[in-house]
Design brief:
Radius of gyration: 21 Å
Structural class: mainly alpha
CATH architecture of the domain at 16-125: Alpha Horseshoe
Number of strands: 0
Protein name: Tetratricopeptide repeat protein
Helix content: over 70%
CATH superfamily of the domain at 16-125: Tetratricopeptide repeat domain
Largest sheet: none
Distance between the termini: 52 Å
Organism: Streptomyces argenteolus
Length: about 375
């Protein structure tokens, strides 16, 4: 059975199990442009040699680099080609990894039903093939999909289970992911102290493991909590500035866009509406460029609120909020949909067409 866990890596250090075969020496911190260039080079070499499993392994890295760079159509073609090569080679683990990549891409594109289907298949194949890492990553993908929908009761226990498994196996990168997911649920339900402690643990763990991507996401979470809980604008902006530097150095397009959206949130809470407007507009353009509808919708919501505070016609605000609510319904983001209801009540422009007094009550939640 092919093994995908890299050997001879320093204990406690983060590694990237999606970089396999000839790409196994790449670091979790390798720039995505470097990963893509080397991935394409090695994929072509594997194709010339007729090495199907190696084609699948290299194609996985190409798919993931393209996805994270926002090159969506290329990512879609790459994970499917990786799966076909793995299936032809009867490499169960490689098939599971390709499906994991496809499911992650589907979630990024807002196709949550497809994400669930592909990630469940990936977890099943991972278990059948004895690859505990891809099984864990696939279950984590299912948990994250449920979390971004706001279904915390259903996925909270799974997050805790995956955190325990990651700690037991010493997988720092997966530990950081689980800590951040649990922290985000606490933050969204108002448990700010618990959320902050978990985000800070994630940042520390990522730092020790040299997981720069994980640290960038953790810093964003810390910035969010210190902004909403403490009103500490300058500390939040400094944390986001540090995270932004990491995102730019590693070419993390999606993480950078979410960073800019959070900067808008911080400034909006502080009443700096013009700066917030500019941040949200920047994030919206970045999300649209990488075809990420969830981030785009959340940026539109922030932009709509900022424009309303700057004197936009209330009727235009109502139209925009109603359209946003429909868009979030289509994606299936219940928590984000509630955010629209709260914004409607906060701005005093509701109720929206086709809604009930729920929007007016939402602000008290």
């Amino acid at each position: 059975m092919a093994r995908v866990i890299q050997q001879d890596r320093p204990a406690g250090k983060a590694f990237a199990p999606e970089y396999q075969g000839a790409l196994g020496s790449l670091s979790v911190n390798s720039s995505l442009t470097e990963v893509l260039a080397k991935g394409v080079e090695e994929l072509r070499a594997a194709e010339r040699a007729g090495q199907l499993e190696e084609m699948a392994r290299c194609g996985l890295a190409v798919a993931e680099a393209c996805r994270r760079l926002g090159r969506i159509e290329e990512a879609d073609a790459a994970w499917k080609a990786s799966y076909r090569a793995a299936r032809s080679a009867q490499a169960t683990g490689a098939m599971a990894w390709a499906l994991w990549s496809g499911g992650t891409l589907a979630r990024q594109r807002g196709s949550l039903a497809l994400a669930y289907r592909l990630l469940r298949l990936a977890a099943e194949l991972g278990e059948r093939g004895g690859d505990v890492v891809v099984r864990g990553y696939s279950l984590a993908g299912l948990a994250e999909t449920g979390r971004i929908q706001g279904d915390y009761e259903a996925v909270g226990e799974l997050h805790e289970q995956l955190l325990a498994e990651a700690r037991r196996r010493g997988e720092a990168r997966h530990t950081v992911w689980a800590l951040e997911g649990i922290a985000q649920m606490h933050r969204n339900t108002g448990s700010y102290d618990k959320a902050l402690a978990l985000f800070e643990e994630a940042a520390t763990t990522a730092g020790r493991a040299d997981d720069r991507r994980g640290r960038a996401w953790a810093l964003r979470g810390i910035a969010d909590v210190v902004s909403v809980r403490d009103g500490d604008v300058e500390r939040a902006l400094a944390l986001l500035g540090e995270a932004e530097s990491i995102c730019r150095e590693m070419t993390l397009s999606s993480a950078l866009a979410y960073n800019h959206k959070m900067r808008g949130n911080v400034r909006y809470r502080a009443g700096r509406y013009q700066q917030a407007r500019d941040d949200y507009a920047l994030a919206l353009a970045e999300f649209e460029e990488i075809d990420e509808p969830r981030g785009a919708a959340l940026s539109r919501l922030g932009l709509t609120k900022a424009l309303a505070r700057l004197g936009r016609n209330p009727a235009e605000t109502v139209v925009e909020l109603a359209d946003l609510r429909r868009a979030l319904d289509r994606i299936g983001l219940r928590h984000a949909r509630d955010m629209v209801d709260k914004a409607t009540a906060e701005l005093g422009v509701g109720p929206l067409p086709g809604t009930t007094a729920r929007a007016e009550e939402a602000v008290t939640r």
